Amino acid sequence: MSDKPYTIRTRKVLTNKLLSRKQMIIDVIHQERANVPRAELMVKIAKMYKVKDPNNIFVFGLRTAFGGGKSTGFCVIYDDAKAAAKYEPRHRLIKNGLAKP
Whole-model pTM? Predict the structure, then answer.
């Protein structure tokens, strides 16, 4: 992990009880970095939302704004791994380590 700072802001936070998850748009402000790895984002989001297992967090669709310094993406936090395995696409489960390729 790099020691350069970055900030995560969430917006449009929805609690989706039917899919047993929270879903939100995340804005990552990283002025001194090119971008922030998904693993770092998942750990920081887990601390923000008090999630016990960071593997239940899926971050995807990150796009860096022109000129850098800000990225926007989507984040989904499942209540448990069983719900994640049921509703998430297989390629995201493989990326997070919840399924084998």
Answer: 0.85
